[in-house]
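User: I'm new to structure prediction. If I give you an amino acid sequence, what do you actually give back? Let's try with this one:
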Amino acid sequence: MLFDTKGHSFERQIIMLHVRWYLSYKLSYRDLEEMAAERGLEVDHTAVYRWVMKFTPGLEKAVRRLKRPSGKSWFLDESVS
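Assistant: Good question. You get back a string of structure tokens that encode the predicted 3D arrangement of the chain. For your 81 residues, that looks like this:
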């Protein structure tokens, strides 16, 4: 499995949600800790940091496979010098 969360205290969905929020929005680890507390989860900001460091390379690899190329040709604008 690409994102093996065995041995972690939280479910895979919770971990991936925090990692996605961190990567998608300008949130700090402490912001994510506070958001989890508002939802009744006791998550430490250092745990979120570890999750981000562990799972970001795998997410990046998975997203790169799904990305389609934007185009084969490009043009330089004449006004740029």
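You can read the tokens as a compact description of the fold. Here is one thing that stands out. The chain has three helices and no strands.
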